[in-house]
Amino acid sequence: MPILKQNFYNQNTLKVAKNLLGCFLVRKKEKKIIRVVITETEAYRGFHDLASHASKGKTERNKIMFGKSGHAYIYLVYGMHWMLNIVTEEKNFPAAVLIRGVNLLNEKGETIKKLDGPAKLTKFLGITGKLNGLDMAQKKILWVEKGEIKNKKIIKSKRVGVDYAKHCKEWKWNFKLDL
User: Fold this and answer.
1) Whole-prediction pTM value?
2) What's the pLDDT tens digit per position in 63-76?
3) Domain boundaries, the chain
4) Can you point out the beta strands (E) in the chain?
5) How far apart are CA 54 and CA 51, in angstroms?
6) 6-177: which CATH architecture?
7) Residues 6 or more apart from 60 whose CB is under 8 A from it?
């Protein structure tokens, strides 16, 4: 499958979040390749998105969000769970897509394991803060390949766990494949 290049990520975050559904998240660990299908994403976009880490400006933690699109923004929550995001849009405009769910498939393309939740998928794939800032448009350690799902049905809903985000908590920026 062809890898998604930097220009794929350098567009509107909501479009990227939807278009990542059905694509393959690929992790290379030593000589082993693990390929999973992205089934759920969530968009975080700009300074006015109160659910975004960037809503209070640029910090040491979120500086990757202000960089070049296509790079991994990986951070720790609750002191124990890694979250994988991919930076989107143009440099200096903070935006990213959180990968919230994936499915592991067998050789026939059938789901053998669902990893619902961003912490479950990062643990399964061995994704940690050591990969923060990684260029995901390069086929090295972690990348995304074009998906094969045609006419995919997408369910839009409110983002998960952002009740603190005032009016932004109502935004339907969570996207799931209707499988």
Assistant:
1) 0.96
2) 999 999 999 999 99
3) 6-177
4) 24-29, 32-45, 72-77, 81-87, 95-105, 111-116, 142-145, 154-157, 174-177
5) 9
6) Roll (3.10)
7) none
